[in-house]
Specification:
single chain; about 425 residues; Immunoglobulin-like; Aspartate Aminotransferase, domain 1; 7-stranded antiparallel sheet; 6-stranded mixed sheet; 6 helices; 27 strands; about 15% helix; globular
Length: about 425
């Protein structure tokens, strides 16, 4: 009798564990509808959210035998939705991190009408092309991105396809069909289920081995889903605050210095890039936009190699970039040295009109923006085992950004009735050098 009671207790415990697992298939279902269904089908957690806030986010996913928080995290995918789990109170809270009334929605397909997953969608200001927001399409090619301006410019890009621009003044943009650019990749046909991009355990895995045309690791980031890169900044799904990892090790440096260092890694040395929007407990990037983990190809125990790169640009004025990288492995010890520098000279022109009570001033600044950045980084690691390694690095970074202009100021008087009372003007010239 005692054994029978013990057996019943074990069976009840087993049933309870099984009840915590979720298995579902969703095909183009709103996130709100799916959350309501989960809330009604289980009693472990109360799921709290605003229905209208998450209704535009549609999901396509197959969930197999997962705990409820993990199942919801897979459903969220890479939407701007934050989940908070309170185990003691058995409650889960979800909210959109971008509080806007508008969501730009649409579906991206390839030339054969198949969905394109993980395509980059950047929301730009149509007047100056500055980044307003961003995101990626899900497994069914669908995207929903918060935005505020009545009219925005959507830029849709995906590795192996021509970039599409769409001026949008309505929330629904419909179906966007992309055309292949066959020279962008080698030996791979990019379709809905492509080997270049895949999803594993909350991360997008970007396999860079078939990408041609990229010189260094920074160039590869321009192809990565969710990553939007400018000269001095990088965002993930339209949000700043990224933590960089190289081979699973956090790199404690600024984004400018990190991008400079990545320019010293040849593209051929990069095996894949992991994009993680919602870091788990094992990462220290909680509260940030996410993690970009650069996985380099493994070198032999006894290896020495490196690269030297130089680039010169000529558009109105000139820009120069130089970088060098050397890696040395000996047994369990590996060390590397990265050196990079950027010199840029860009034309600058600005005209302003300032109106005072009794006169108006017109000022025009013409000159150059001069940028110089330098960085050097040395790292050494000791691999005690496959799972344990020790390392240290030292880094130096310096630079400046100067505005060197000639200014012309013109003063003109006027009356409130619109009659000129001063027919002469004064011109002042200056040649300042201002640190920005």
């Amino acid at each position: 009798m005692r054994r029978l009671s013990l057996l019943l207790i074990l069976l009840m415990a087993f049933s309870a564990v099984q009840a915590q697992r979720i298995s579902h298939t969703y095909n183009n279902v709103s996130l709100s509808e799916a959350l309501l269904q989960l809330n009604n089908e289980q009693s472990d957690y109360a799921i709290n959210f605003l229905y209208n806030e998450l209704e535009d986010f549609r999901i396509t996913a197959t969930i197999k035998n997962k705990k409820l928080p993990d199942a919801i995290q897979q459903m969220i995918g890479f939407y701007p939705v934050r989940m908070t789990v309170i185990p003691d109170d058995h409650e889960i809270y979800l909210e959109c991190t971008h509080k806007t009334d508008r969501h730009l929605t649409g579906t991206i397909v390839d030339e054969q009408g198949q969905p394109v997953a993980y395509a980059n969608v950047a929301i730009l200001n149509p007047t100056d092309s500055t980044l307003l927001s961003g995101g990626v399409s899900n497994e069914s090619g669908y995207f929903a991105i918060p935005y505020e301006q009545p009219t925005v410019l959507a830029r849709i890009s995906y590795v192996g396809y021509k970039t599409v621009y769409r001026l949008c003044n309505q929330p629904e943009v419909g179906t966007i069909r992309m055309q292949p650019e066959t020279q962008a990749i080698r030996g791979v046909v990019v379709k809905g289920q492509t080997p270049i991009l895949r999803r594993e355990a909350g991360a997008i895995i970007f396999d860079t081995r078939n990408i041609t045309g990229a010189i260094n690791a920074t160039d590869l980031l321009r192809y990565a889903p969710g990553v939007l890169l400018t000269d001095d900044d990088i965002t993930l799904f339209g949000t700043s605050g990224i933590i960089f990892y190289v081979n699973g090790k956090e790199q404690r440096m600024g984004q400018k210095e990190m991008l400079q260092m990545l320019k010293s890694y040849p593209a051929s040395d990069v095996e894949k890039i992991e994009i993680i929007q919602s870091p788990g407990a094992k990462h220290s990037a909680a509260g940030n936009a996410g993690i970009i983990n650069i996985i380099l190809k493994k070198k032999g125990n006894d290896y020495i190699g490196g690269s030297i790169g130089y680039a010169h640009t000529q558009y109105e004025e000139h820009g120069d970039e130089a970088n060098a990288n050397i890696i040395y492995n000996k047994g369990k010890v590996s060390t590397s040295l990265n050196v990079a520098g950027t010199w840029d000279n860009t034309r600058y022109c600005e005209t302003n009109t300032i109106q005072f009570d009794d006169y108006v001033r017109y000022n025009t600044d013409n000159g150059h923006i001069k940028k110089e950045n330098y960085s050097a980084r040395w790292q050494i690691d000791y691999n005690a085992s496959d799972r344990l390694s020790f390392g240290a690095y030292a880094m130096m970074a310096d630079g400046e950004r100067c505005l060197d202009v000639d200014g012309e100021y013109i003063y003109g008087g006027y009356s409130l009735l619109g009659m000129n009372k001063l027919n002469t003007c004064m011109t002042a010239r200056r040649t300042p050098k201002t640190m920005l």
